[in-house]
Amino acid sequence: MSRTTAFLGLGAMGWPMAAQLARHAGETGGRALVWNRTREKADAHAREFGSEAAELPEVTGANVIFSCLPTSAEVDEVLTALAGQLRPGTVWVDCTSGRPDAARRQAAGLAASGVAFLDAPVSGGPGGAQAGTLAVMVGGDAAVLERVRGDLAFAGKVVHVGETGSGFAVKAINNTLMAVNMWAAGEGLAALARTGVDLHAALEVINAGSGRSYPTETLIPQRVLTREFPLTFQLGLLAKDAGIAAEVVQGAGASAPVLMQVAALYRAAAHTVGAEADYSAALKLVEQLNGTEIK
To answer: Most distant CA pair in the chain: distance in Å?
Structure first.
């Protein structure tokens, strides 16, 4: 039996994720609807990938509705717009990097209409979405996940991490760990720059040793040393994720001084450098603090 999916939000991640759903629909005889607040973007997606551009009420005909929006607040707006229109038996899969408390509230509201909810944020960046290799961390009913596992065409690895809200919690911590690595690497490289060390050579040996990380292997060489800072993920959104991680820490009554400090540093970077800059541009604040460029 063919299935219909709907994907809401065609940003840097949503665009290639929805493309994977369209490819899957083409292979299985299903339909892949796409919606974006800017209709022209949905039309462009349909022309390029064979998806179907839809108005918001039309997505209620889908078996599975995916959302990938900037924050939980935007998901709330869409849910409000669709109130009373969703069909019982539908599964809503929210790939937004959202808030655990919002996931629990949204899940409870949808359950009253017979709609199941999974918080299923992803990791792997636009490249992983284009390749269909994203890591998906899923919170909610494990049985519901099994109902839609075959629809996660953008995923390379899907892991059920716990009850509703757990997916968002893991994603926030994951992104903050990356932020910790990037900030620490930036501080270390700025110190080396002040001593006259060739940073390209320094990274070559760091990436062959125990100090390597995704930021040292990819982000800093490709974005910071080149001074390009191409926009793929906004700094303000990373600061938001670090803030969610701080809330997770506080809610758990845990001790995590490094994570808490990094959340404050990225908030400051978003204010200083600009929330709409690429997340790698956070290291411009490190450069300002050290009076040197990482290049």
So the answer is: 65
